[in-house]
Amino acid sequence: MALSWRSWLANEGSKHLFLFFWLSLNVWLFWKTFLLYYQGLQYYYLHQMLGLGLCVSRASASVLNLNCCLVLLPMCRVILAFLRGSQKVASKKTRRLLDKSKTFHVTCGITICIFSVLHVAAHLVNALNFSENYNEEFLALNAANYRGEDPRKLLFATVPGLTGVIMVLVLFLMCTASTFAIRVSNYDIFWYTHNLFFVFYMLLMLHVSGGVLKYQTNLQEHPPGCFNPNKTLRQNLTVPKAFEELFPDYTTETFPEDLPVPEPFVQNHFMRICSEEPKFQSHFPETWFWISGPLCLYCVERLYRYIRSNKPVTITSVISHPSNVLEVRMMKDDFEARPGQYVILHCPRVSALESHPFTLTMCPTDTKATFGVHVKIVGDWTERFRDLLLLHSNQDTEILPIFQQRRYPKLYVDGPFGSPFEEALNYEVSLCVAGGIGVTPFASVLNTLLDGWKCYKLRRLYFIWVCRDIESFRWFADLLCMLHNKLWQENRPDYINIQLYLSQTDGIQKIIGEKYQALNSRLLIGRPQWKLLFDDIAKCNRRKTIGVFCCGPNKISKILHKLSNSSNSYGTRFEYNKESFS
């Protein structure tokens, strides 16, 4: 059980602990802010006038400030890629935490949605309270202009109210379009609505600049909780019941100015006497302090990415593979990348605004400057991209010299950016599991090993590839055969263990072609027996830490995740890393 606990902590336990810590931090911040504002209302006897709505709205606003500040940081891809590749982040566990940046971004987004609902509900109550409980004693604190003012005017005829309503609509669009169903069925909706975040932040900065929040400027002359009996009784105002017991004879009469305040009253109820009434002034928007830094950092990074990707790449070749897969090979000056990283492609002729991430299947090296990606043709963007690159969508394109190539459309590359698969070469033993087109991140690893494997820590690689169509294995069949032959020539046939699984078959059980003979013996029909596979790997690698990398359907990912957390009798520990299609 101890090993199982260690595996759980190494894989998903750290994420769960962090999420629990983050939730606890937000709840603690909400509660502390709530108490702070509630005590302030009690000092001025405004809790009956405003109720708890103001406390809830301010407490939820503090949580929103924190999350709106941090939700942008996981999207700073250049910074994350720099930290991952920097020698200053030498710990593998720390680098693996960077892989949870998307999870942290989603967590902050969900937190913003939840506390926004609470914030809106509290302000609806506030609008009603300001209207019904209008108090002439604190004119500066009243959001309403007179008693009984229509609360809808406060919501739609003021800057804070109107910007708040628009922000709710923008946030609703962003949240609904971020659901899994919409992202899978129509990625364009997710892409365009998510870019409304800039509108959201601009409205947020206007929302907090309406001057509704005020602070007291004369705390020395009027400390919270003090009492001015002369003014209170001179104006024939009804005093609190606690005062009536101490001043039974003066509750309805003018209190003489030269009469000293009764000593028991001061000792039992108040420690200080105020010399003037409180004065209030609009508070500087604290939200600006929270979001200005991350927003400027994100904008600077986007500007840097735009400058870096402003020059189009040179497309050297385009290859049409079976099962609707397109390979694009490119060249770009001063482009450097590590195995497992990804780039973002932008083709203005396909879409002026859209850009999509693709994992590098070939990285530039010291001997060659070419890098490439494999594009699965699914969706409108990839279909239009294919039609622009190929003369005919069903025609294979031969690899021609650059000077003989047809004129391709302009293509811009942003990146590279980091991913969990960069760690595949940093384990002594790695298990790489791919499902269909999910093989792309491992293709760059295999290409790197083909150039030379001795300089890396990796000494044994288990490569599992599951496909429905046998033609899909042709995408990287040549690469697998070349790597297999190279390792045999170097007397290291046990360096890589290749297992190909064909989950669906119509009777074809072999890859057509004599040059793929090395792969025919490694082609199996059906699905892997994952439990037996993990037991066999654990038995052959006793007391070692094995990196598990998966890029494929969630069903396979969940199975591998569960097996990585389970214990075994060989002292082997599995550390799980995952990349999902969604």
Automatic annotation (TrEMBL):
It is found in: Cell junction, Focal adhesion; Cell membrane; Cytoplasm; Endoplasmic reticulum membrane. Its EC number is 1.6.3.1. The keyword Membrane applies. It is a multi-pass membrane protein. Residues 308-423 form the FAD-binding FR-type domain. One of its GO terms (biological process) is superoxide anion generation. SUPFAM superfamilies: Ferredoxin reductase-like, C-terminal NADP-linked domain, Riboflavin synthase domain-like. Pfam families: FAD_binding_8 (PF08022), Ferric_reduct (PF01794), NAD_binding_6 (PF08030). InterPro entries: Cyt_b245_heavy_chain, FAD-bd_8, FAD-bd_FR_type, Fe3_Rdtase_TM_dom, Fe_red_NAD-bd_6, FNR_nucleotide-bd, RBOH/FRE, Riboflavin_synthase-like_b-brl. The keyword Transmembrane helix applies. It catalyses: NADPH + 2 O2 = 2 superoxide + NADP(+) + H(+); NADPH + O2 + H(+) = H2O2 + NADP(+). Keywords: Cell junction, Cell membrane, Cytoplasm, Disulfide bond, Endoplasmic reticulum, Glycoprotein, Membrane, NADP, Nucleus, Oxidoreductase, Transmembrane, Transmembrane helix. NADPH oxidase that catalyzes predominantly the reduction of oxygen to H2O2. Can also catalyze to a smaller extent, the reduction of oxygen to superoxide. May function as an oxygen sensor regulating the KCNK3/TASK-1 potassium channel and HIF1A activity. May regulate insulin signaling cascade. May play a role in apoptosis, bone resorption and lipolysaccharide-mediated activation of NFKB. May produce superoxide in the nucleus and play a role in regulating gene expression upon cell stimulation. PANTHER family: NADPH OXIDASE (PTHR11972), NADPH OXIDASE 4 (PTHR11972:SF206). This is NADPH oxidase 4. It comes from Neopipo cinnamomea. The gene is Nox4.
